[in-house]
Amino acid sequence: MPITRGFKGRQTETVGARDRVPPGQYVTRDFPVLTAGPTQRTPLESWSLSLQRGGELISRWSWIEFKALPQTERTTDIHCVTKWTKLDTQWRGVTFDDVVKAAGLSSAPNLYVMAHCDGGYTTNLPVVDLVDGKAMIATHFDDMPIPATHGGPARLLVPHLYFWKSAKWVRRLEFMEANTPGFWESMGYHIYGDPWREQRYTNDA
Amino acid sequence: MNNATRTMPDTFPLSGDWQSATVAAFRDETPSVKTIAFAVSQWTGHLAGQHVDIRLTGEDGYQAERSYSIASPGGTAALIELTVERISDGEVSPFLTDGLALGDTIELRGPIGGYFTWKPENPSPLLLVAGGSGVVPLMSILRTRNKCANRVPGRLLYSSRRFEDIIYREELDRFAASDNSFSIVHTLTRGAPTAWRGETRRVDTQMLAKYALPTAQKPRIFVCGPTLFVETVADQLLALGHQETGIKTERFGPTGEKR
Fold first, then answer.
1. Per the CB < 8 Å rule, is A2 touching B254?
2. Which chain B residues are within 8 Å of A182, Cβ to Cβ?
């Protein structure tokens, strides 16, 4: 690799955590806010989460109904494609598995999901990356309701992929047959987004 | 539920692989901001508003990567200008502004990002709102616009701390002086020189109501700056009735939510 003359870097933040920081990432204690447009603020009274197969509705939960689903807590590291990694973030919400179960499905009907959000944001995910406890619809961060700037009242949490996949303000999960690109995936970012393989942009291996 | 689909650009350049970039020129913009021109060998061109990733490697193999907005106009020029603000406790920016010499090389890849971009063909009037070094990608848009024969109306509302912190001040003044369809409103948040004719407070609803282009013109709006600045401006633009799908934002810097 080409050495940059005179560059030393700091490295202090990653001491003891090097194996938890994917290539090209740095550790921050802050919680940066990245969004392509204005922050969405949907009142809880008009919020709902829908599960769909293509255009067909499978199930829908109001905020009250959604809060009554089984709650799962999770502490995990998160990795944003803009290079920051935040360690040991604490979340609470409903796992994707529990959402599927609550809809009366024995398993996911298709291989892929498109997450649709307030404001028109979308992101595509393989079902295999959502099941077996790998993903949740999170409503709490650090034991507090997630602030709107960070995607509240509810956002996806898929922490083993770059954080643009953990869509803010999620409202609809649509099962789909093909792996159709979502918003950033159509704008030069990788279709899958594994931080450990540094799959940041469209043509990355 | 809001089913608005964000406008997708028809085409935009995709990122290439890492390549060597050689420091070709420096320009001091303000006491804490410097523009660095890098010569790159493989550049298929970029759109105004796109950014690049840079990678620095220490002798021990330690690497740091960061993203920086491109300041130079969209196009295929092989000289890419980045404007970098020195963050005193930063790991990378002090090295870029103070540690590089002419002829040094770093690694660079890009261009990146297909959303916060502007093309001269877009017929909508342009409203640009910048906080501090958030002006950099907006300057790429203005420089691109300035090269066009037929220019859409444009306005820049630009918040800086002090007079001496205004990045690109003279070039922006030249744009405004030579172009009736472009205007700048400066605001200074930490004191102004005597005889200052701009605004002297943080951007707020009243300021946006006064200077944002009329909603009826359906301007294409780009907002870039520190997180809280962008949050405030985007919320107020919505409150003033601007279309959500017309507002593109880019936030950077700390949110103060440390734990």
1. no
2. none
Rounded percentage of chain B residues whose pLDDT exceeds 70: 95
Q: Give the tens place of pLDDT for each residue, B29-56.
A: 999 999 999 999 899 899 999 999 999 9
pLDDT of A25-36, one tens digit each?
999 988 899 999
Contact criterion met (CB < 8 Å) for B58 and A23: no
Nearest to B255 among A30, A200, A201 (CB): A30
3-class state of residue B155 by DSSP: strand
Q: Kindly give, in sequence order, each residue whose CB lies less than 8 Å from that of residue A15, ignoring residues fewer than 6 positions away.
A: none
Strand ranges in A54-110 using DSSP code E only, listed in sequence order: 56-62, 72-79, 84-95
> Is the CATH code 3.30.450.40 the one for domain B126-252?
no
Q: Could you tell me the maximum CA-CA distance found in chain A, to the nearest angstrom?
A: 60
Extents of the domains making up chain A: 47-197
Q: Hey, what amino acid is at A113?
A: V
Q: Given an 8 Å threshold on Cβ–Cβ distance, is B248 in contact with A36?
A: yes
CATH class of A47-197: alpha beta
CA nearest to A187 within chain B: B114
Considering the entire predicted model, what is its pTM?
A: 0.94
pLDDT tens by residue, B204-241: 999 999 999 999 999 999 999 999 999 999 999 999 99
Report d(CA B197, CA B195) in Å as an integer: 6
pLDDT of residue A12: 62
Which ipTM value was assigned to this complex?
0.92
Within 101-120 of B, beta carbons closer than 8 Å to A belong to 101, 104-107, 112-116
Closest CA of chain B from A130, distance in Å: 24
The CATH number of B19-112, from 2.40.30.10, 3.40.50.300, 2.60.34.10, 2.60.40.1180, is 2.40.30.10
Residue the block writes with tokens 């090389």? B105
